[in-house]
Design goal:
The chain is mainly alpha-helical. The chain is 55% helix and 0% strand.
Length: 69
């Protein structure tokens, strides 16, 4: 096992380096795009603090016909 690691140390290092830099680059790009979209107004933020729901929203306004007991 040690021989394998020593013989392939360069390839293993390149692989690990690629993972690290790829992850960092992807995170940076995502953050940059998110901030750009937020500043340009591409996304919208809605204040729903006063929103209320009423009725049967789980079944979406179901009605019963001939509801006799």
């Amino acid at each position: 096992m040690i021989d394998f690691l020593l013989n392939h140390a360069k390839e293993i290092g390149a692989f690990i380096g690629g993972l690290v830099t790829g992850g960092a680059g992807g995170s940076w790009l995502t953050l940059r795009m998110s901030r750009k979209n937020q500043l340009s107004g591409a996304g919208s933020i809605v204040d729903q603090s006063g929103a209320r729901a009423g009725g049967n929203i789980a079944g979406r306004d179901n009605t019963t016909i001939n509801n006799r007991r």
